[in-house]
Amino acid sequence: MFASFKNIEHLLETISNYNDHSKNFLTLASALGVLIIITYSICLTFRVIQLLRLYVFSQLCCKTDFTKKYGKWAVISGSTDGIGQSMAKELARRGMSIIVVARNEEKLAKTKAMLEREPNVGEVETVKVDLSDPSMENFDKVRAQIDPDNRDIGLLINNAGSFPDRYARFNRFDMEEIVSIVNLNVLGTLHLTRMIMPGMIERGRGLVMNVSSILGEMPGPYFNVYGATKSFVNAFTRQLQMEYGSHPIDIILLQPGPVSTKQLIATSKVSDPSFLIPSADDFARTSINALSTRIQCYTGAMVHEFMKSQSRIFTCLGLISSITKFLVIMNGKKPELSPVPKRKKVQLVSAQEDRPLAGSATDTPMHMTSSEFGANK
């Protein structure tokens, strides 16, 4: 009977410990839930304000005088087609002098003639160079033509990039194609930045824009090498932003999604611009206007911001999933049980004889004589 009372007492103590554990779990889960909601709400509020600045207020406000703010010249690589050419036109309309950097001499001549027809444009010069050639001799020639030490270069837009001419798995590309993509997208950006940025630092003004891609943030099939090079551009630009945050120069990371250009039309058969795929001119105008906000990273189109947000949402969901799993594991952990009281090992003693009964050693909770033991039966 006493043993039964002891077991019931132990059971009640165990239930009490489990209830305390559950209460602690619910308190922890509630606190984390509130913290996540508050953090997400604050981030969402700041993000909405940022998007309004980029794509509403900057588009309605007066256009920035980049010549006065940054300098006379703008160097734009890959500016004979697509986004680069549209950016060159937009800056020419604002009175900047343009240096067009590309490798096709015929396209360079056409682009120069087109820019010179803009009423407010300053001077227009061209530099013929293959930026996928990583040799120092090649870039020494480029330096001699651009002459960054004797020009007031205010803007550098690293737009030149190589996009695969077909969708294919990694093993379907020749090594020559892979090396060409890496050289142009990575080394070309590094060389031009290293060439022009020191002069900006010395003059105390300037802007460097590195054109990356949304694929650098959202990995996908058939864009393996291209996406990896754009991830490098992302990391390189962010490192520069941290290193030169105290300097009076702006370093911008542009991460566009799909834009209606000849290159995109050739690879994906996209024909006309649409809501999801803006034209190069519209995209360039929005991106250049957004420079006045001095926000360091954006995609250049509102619809592309939502595309990019998908990766952030998945990252957030992954974090929430990890926290949930952790809490479930914590909740499933067995509560600490109070130790079961050890039973005393006693010997039954005969009432007539002061000696142990043969074979009577048992585990009972109390020391009893044989007569008492018999009475409890």
UniProtKB/TrEMBL annotation:
Principal cellular location given in the protein's record: endoplasmic reticulum
Parts of the chain that traverse the membrane: 25-49
A single cellular component GO annotation: endoplasmic reticulum
Superkingdom to which the source organism belongs: Eukaryota
Polar residues bias (residue ranges): 361-377
Disordered, as annotated region: 349-377
Cell location: Endoplasmic reticulum
Keyword hit for Oxidoreductase: yes
tRNA-binding as UniProt keyword: no
GO terms of molecular function: oxidoreductase activity
Keywords of this entry: Membrane, Oxidoreductase, Transmembrane, Transmembrane helix
Family: Belongs to the short-chain dehydrogenases/reductases (SDR) family.
Protein name: Hydroxysteroid dehydrogenase-like protein 1
Organism of derivation: Aceria tosichella
